[in-house]
Design a protein that fits this description.
4 strands; Translation Initiation Factor IF3; alpha+beta; 3 helices; 4-stranded mixed beta sheet; 99 residues
């Protein structure tokens, strides 16, 4: 799934002031990281992920791993070591950015 235009700009602007809620470190992409990601994205819809300096993970590797888990996860933007992901929440009470 690809988000373009105004919705992409809106999501980027909302994520600009967010702090990263998930960090990828030395362990890289593990099952625990993916479980944490799924929990966080279900609660928040929009999350920022940070790649730490000691990680060997490239941003494209993380994008592919997360999209293999769930096709509805959308990569919004990567700037340096910060990445923004979006997925529409299944529960209506958790929907903040998808109306």
């Amino acid at each position: 799934m690809i988000i373009k235009g105004k919705k992409n700009r809106y999501l980027r602007s909302q994520a600009a002031t967010m702090k990263p809620v998930l960090q990828v470190g030395r362990e890289g992409i593990s099952d625990n990281l993916i479980k944490q990601f799924e929990i966080l994205i279900e609660k928040n819809e929009l999350i920022k992920v940070s790649l730490l300096q000691n990680t060997m993970v490239e941003p494209q590797d993380l994008i592919e791993a997360l999209q293999n888990v769930d096709d509805s996860i959308v990569h919004i933007q990567t700037i340096g070591s910060k990445m923004i992901f979006y997925r529409k929440a299944s529960k209506i009470k958790n929907r903040k950015y998808s109306v």
